[in-house]
């Protein structure tokens, strides 16, 4: 059955039809018209109560439909275990981390007003356009090198704490990052402004490939401690089709571009900067994974099974498959599953049909596309 996705207009979204979200929403529903200048940030596909998809035929909420038809439609599960989204980012999202399941349950029990969800939120992001993110701590030697290069940062954190990174232990990084995150705002402001105003530091930023990111973050979030995250976290530039996986405890921030995101059905975020929202610094510091790793290691590798390119993260809540085939194939046999899947078509047109052997896609000859491209979110692939 066809779904109508839920469109979010958070302030950080790309504007009007620059946004992949707006383009998709317009193709998805005749009732949607993109308005110039409006930010279109997220397109939700799933049954999360904060943005449920609707059945196109009846306008029933997907969650209600699945609950009523769990046996036939979703392997007896009363709700979808995953949430599938498209994000269009003009302005950085907050530096954040997601708790693991145990911590999510504890946080929800202790602070239900802030942590409204008791589920964990591992995320997989696949770039649809050139996509930039901060992801995981840099190797400790790299962080030390950057702190030594930028004297104001060294002064803010303290030379001894920076020297201590030499031990290459998670504890030394925890001490360093918590010093940064708990510094007084006046000191943070002074550090950021000195780096901004000093010609030598600007040259150094340029040499490290961080000048544009620094300037953009400064413009959007002046003097926010999150700007200094660029010296601690890996900067990852994804080409369309490349992916990163954000496991529990992995600090990250999406900076710009369009991506597809699949996650466990949850909204559980601990924020640490680049946001006017509540920052829970104490929980953040205790939650993070302090093992530094080089940027190259952060790329998530897909596997190919027949025509399907598979992204299978180490959690059972979801996998994502990419179908990319010439429409001269006329039809495509889908993998059989008793659980509900969501298929997002990006190129080409197809009708989904069923027969004894399961579902298959039949391609429209009238489609202008040479290839059919779609991403499918599914539960429990293996
Ligand atoms: Zn996240």
TrEMBL record:
Keywords tagged on the record: Isomerase, Metal-binding, Zinc
Highest taxon listed in the record's lineage: Eukaryota
Name of the protein in question: mannose-6-phosphate isomerase
Species: Hermetia illucens
GO biological process, one term: GDP-mannose biosynthetic process
Family indicated by similarity: Belongs to the mannose-6-phosphate isomerase type 1 family.
InterPro entries attached to this UniProt entry: Man6P_Isoase-1, Mannose-6-P_Isomerase, Pmannose_isomerase-type1_CS, PMI_typeI_cat, PMI_typeI_hel, RmlC-like_jellyroll, RmlC_Cupin_sf
UniProt domain Phosphomannose isomerase type I helical insertion: residue ranges: 167-233
GO terms under cellular component: cytosol
CDD domains: cupin_PMI_type_I_N
Any one Gene Ontology molecular-function term assigned to this protein's record: zinc ion binding
Annotated Phosphomannose isomerase type I catalytic domain residues: 3-140
Cofactor entry: Zn(2+)
Record field: catalytic activity: D-mannose 6-phosphate = D-fructose 6-phosphate
